[in-house]
Structure formats: C-alpha cells, structure tokens
Amino acid sequence: MPTTQHSPQGHTHAHSLAQRHPQDSSEAKDSEGGEAGNMPNLSTLSLDELKQLDRDPEFFDDFIEEMSVVQHLNEELDSMMNQVENISKENESKGSHLVELKRRLSDDYTALKTLGEKCDQLNKKYLKKSEEYAPQHIRELLQIAASNADADCDRHVEHFLNGKIDVQTFLNTYQSSKKISAERKAKEERLGTQLSALERAGI
C-alpha cells in the first residue's frame, strides 16, 4: 500500500470524516436494523476520501482515532489504568500497614513472654514462702530447734563431766539451753494442738 506524508489538512479532514461517522452510523443503524452499529459507514464517503484512506496510513489512523467509539474505548482504557494504579497504591499502603501490625504483634508477644516468665518466678517464690510459713512446716522447725537445744544440753553435760568447763559455766549454759528447749517444745505443742483442732473442724 503506498504511503504519503500526513498533513494538518489531512488530519482535519480525517477529524471531519470521523465527526460525520456517528450520524452516518446512526442512520445506517436505523435503515439496516443496527448491523452497522458503531463501525464506520464507508458508503457515505466520497471516492476521493476512500482513496485517501487507502493510500495514507496516518490519515487512516487519525480517522479511526477520531471515531467516537474509539475515543470511548480509550477513555475506558484510561479509566481502567487509573483504577489499577489506585488499587496498586492501596495494596502498597495495606502492605506497609500489615508490616507494622506484624511488628507490633511481635513486640506484644515478646512482652507477654517476658511477663509470663516473671509471673512464673513470682509464683515459685510465693509457693516457697507459703511452704516456709505453713503451720505444719513451722511445727517441724520447732521440733528440730527443740531437738538442737536438747543436744546442746547433752554437750554441756559431757563437757562438764570431762572437766572442760567449771560448775558455774556448766550451770549457766545448761540452764540456758534447757530453757530454750522447753520454750520451743511448748510452742510446738501449742501449735500441734491448734492444728489438730483445725483438722477436726475440717478447715
């Protein structure tokens, strides 16, 4: 197909032809039952116009681009491209927000883990203190302390019999240890009585 340089007059002519097209197309649609649709009705063009369309590709392209149906398609294409761009920006924004949420979740998990470890440590300390101050445990400690005081008394007697201490020292140390032993045994006995009463009461 021969080609020629497209001039401004040719573009104006193509635009004029395209502007004639909607009316021609509408008439063709009414007269031919809608078969022409939005396609150009070439039968309305003159022989010179048809020849120019045939020999001038740029003139032909301009003629097509100036058609209302093509312009409408271009507008729809631009609209879809804008929608795609907006969706892309929205997804990018959501992606950044998702990264921030993941970071916060990681920080919260770390803080929760640390808090759980501290809670576990405090719970162990509480259980240990509970055992230490449990009445039965205190009673056992009093029994051990009284037994130690009795052992001190026996040791003082042994030292006196072996001549390691004099009479006055023996009396002072023996009486002191005996007093401590008696006090601890009395406390242990009172605590034992209270525990027995609580046990009978079902507490």
TrEMBL record:
Region (Disordered), start-end ranges: 1-43
Keyword terms of this UniProt record: Coiled coil, Endosome, Protein transport, Transport
Subcellular location: Late endosome membrane
Any one GO biological process: ubiquitin-dependent protein catabolic process via the multivesicular body sorting pathway
Keyword check for Thylakoid: no
Regions of compositional bias (Polar residues) in chain numbering: 1-10
Residues in the signal sequence: none
NAD as UniProt keyword: no
Bias (Basic and acidic residues) ranges: 21-32
Coiled coil location: 70-132
Function of the protein: Component of the ESCRT-I complex, a regulator of vesicular trafficking process. Required for the sorting of endocytic ubiquitinated cargos into multivesicular bodies. May be involved in cell growth and differentiation.
Name listed for the protein in its UniProt record: VPS37 C-terminal domain-containing protein
